[in-house]
Amino acid sequence: MRAVLVVGAGVVGLTCAIRLLEAGHRVDVVAADPPPATTSAVAAALWYPYRALPQDRVTAWSATTYGVLADLAQDPATGVAMRSGTELLRTRQPDPWWADAVPDLTHVTDVPGYAGGWRFTAPVAEMGTHLRWLAARLEELGGTLTRAYLDRLPESEDEGVDVVVNASGLGAERLVADPTLSPVRGQVVVVEQVGLEQWWLDPGAPGGPTYVVPRRDDIVLGGTDQPGERDREPDPATAEDILARAAALVPALAGARVLRHAVGLRPVRPQVRVERVGDVIHCYGHGGAGVTLSWGCAAEVVELAG
């Protein structure tokens, strides 16, 4: 058994901590923000490898996570559900590079205004519920979660631990001075549930990637993809644009009551960093795919912990 300190309480940090606890290690989590205040809490959390590379490792991590989330979906308390949906394409393209990670990808050719697309079943996590479930699972296994602002990445000898897991997301800019890591701003609008069951995605929509992700009691509409932007305040004009794009994609959304607005900063780097350097295991830079990669990366972190 090793004493492990996990830095970060988003979906990646919590899943790493849970898998380490299940492997028999003692685990403490420390984070500047509690789970409900992390970028993970803003996510539409549709399983989809977005802004995450390299392709081979991301496909493997995504496939592992898909399987875990599919199992979790059998318990409503986890906040995970399996939903079918469609990604629409404005130009003809080959199958997505991550196609091997999903079991039921089928082609779509009959949508007016689009060149084609594909339909598949994907996990969707209601992040408020899912983060609470992850935190409860952490506590159930004997882990701890402490809120504290860190101005540097702890060193194992300073903290009396054997291994430090850096799952700090965008915080790695400060904690390890990673110049390749940068924010990509994403804004969403959450509206009332109007009877939708399936998700829709138009990644090539004018104005930005457009997605409609239904959940039990509401629907997440997005979005934006703004590299280098750090403003966490929702922009009213952007919100109106998102609503218009979403209603064009799914007309049933026209006039849906807006419940709230949110902004998250995706931690993007040229490649997701999962590696061990001395007594530190780095696990950050998951872009817009934190939920999608979480359990797969957590399994690799356990291997690196030894």
Question: What are the salient characteristics of this protein?
Answer:
single chain, 306 residues, alpha/beta, Rossmann fold, globular
Layout of helices and strands:
Blueprint: E1 3-7, H1 11-22, E2 26-31, H2 55-72, E3 80-89, E4 106-108, E5 116-125, H3 127-140, E6 144-147, H4 156-159, E7 163-166, H5 172-175, E8 182-192, E9 199-202, E10 210-214, E11 218-222, E12 226-227, H6 236-249, E13 258-277, E14 280-286, H7 290-305
Parallel strand pairs: 1-2, 1-7, 2-6, 3-9, 7-14
Antiparallel strand pairs: 3-5, 4-5, 8-11, 8-12, 8-13, 9-10, 10-11, 13-14
Helix pairs in contact: 1-3, 1-7, 2-7
Instruction: Identify the overall geometry.
Output: globular
CATH topology, which one?
Rossmann fold
Number of helices: 7
Named at the architecture level, the CATH assignment is 3-Layer(aba) Sandwich
Tell me which oligomeric state these chains represent: single chain
Average pLDDT for all residues: 96
What is the name of the CATH class?
A: Alpha Beta
According to CATH, the homologous superfamily is NAD(P)-binding Rossmann-like Domain
Percent in helix:
25-40%
Rg from Cα: 19 Å
**Residue ranges: pLDDT <50 for 5 or more in a row?**
none
Please give the domain count. 1
Helix-and-strand structural type? alpha/beta
Percentage of residues in DSSP E strands: 25-35%
Strand count, sense and barrel status of the largest sheet are: 14 strands, mixed
